[in-house]
Amino acid sequence: MRKRILISATALPAVMFAAVPAKADITGTIDATITLEAGCIINGTNYDDGSTGVDFGTLDFGTYNTLFTQADSEVVSAATGFTIQCSNGVTPTLSFNAGQNDGSGDGVGVHAMAHSTAAGQFVTYNLYSDAGRTALIPIGGDIVLAGDGSTQTVNVYGRAFGEPGLTPGVYNDIVTVVVEL
């Protein structure tokens, strides 16, 4: 025998709603943004446009007696020269500005290293862009690099000039280098 189940018309909608919960998808968006400014990586350190205090390397002429005629050196950071990589599309120009003692001393160099304790004692020197030391980088002189975003090695060479009457001791100078972007 078959049983019949009767469901009243008023009970049917309640059963249907109880079996299928109501749902609706909620959609939205995430806004992503970034602002990039020009910058450079110099000797492995990242610098933003406008940074100061960058260490481009050292020009160490070594140790000589006071009767030397000339001494050669190269700006060194790591093994040779210094490396610079700037933002793609930016053509960096290195500008070699004045040192602290330019025009001092009787030697033929445009820059001068001052004796650390004996006032008025100077050793003059020049900066060059070639190993043969024929392409002088004058005060305010520039070296223009490629603007393709590649890492470039910049070699800067120096030559110090002896002169009569130098006093033994340590001589030094600081030349400001500006990377113009």
Mind explaining what this structure looks like?
With 181 residues, the protein is mostly beta strands. The chain has a single domain (39-180), classed as Immunoglobulin-like (Sandwich), CATH 2.60.40. Helix content is 4%, strand content 30%. The protein contains 1 helix and 13 strands; from the N terminus they run H-E-E-E-E-E-E-E-E-E-E-E-E-E. The protein has one helix spanning 12-19, and strands at residues 39-42, 45-48, 70-74, 82-86, 93-96, 111-115, 122-128, 136-137, 141-144, 152-154, 157-161, 171-172, 177-180. The strands form 3 sheets. Strands 3, 6, 7, 8, 11 and 12 form a 6-stranded antiparallel beta sheet that branches. Strands 2-1-4-10 form a 4-stranded antiparallel beta sheet, with no helix packed on it. The chain starts with 11 loop residues before the first helix and ends with a strand.
